[in-house]
């Protein structure tokens, strides 16, 4: 049973008198997504390389500091 006053039409039929819009050109989302993913991988790789370089420098400095402290205490 339909509600009173609907006359068997939907809201879109009552208020939208134009045709439904259709996309004029098919979207090429696969190319866009793969380009974005490729850009993201490049950025991630560069950040990882930079982080590893910083870790290497920090570890080397820490190791040298420990080595100097050890040599100072053993020479006494």
| Basic shape | rod-shaped
What class, by secondary structure content?
mainly alpha
Report the portion of residues in β strands.
Answer: under 5%
State the share of residues found in helices, binned by percent: 55-70%
Strands, count: 0
Runs with pLDDT <50, length 5+? Answer: none
Average pLDDT for all residues: 79
Protein name: Betaine aldehyde dehydrogenase 1
Region (Disordered): 1-40
Structural summary, described in words:
This protein is mainly α and 76 residues long. 68% of the residues lie in helices and 0% in strands. It comes from Hibiscus syriacus (Rose of Sharon). This is Betaine aldehyde dehydrogenase 1.
Could you outline the blueprint of secondary structure elements for this entry?
Layout: H1 11-15, H2 29-75
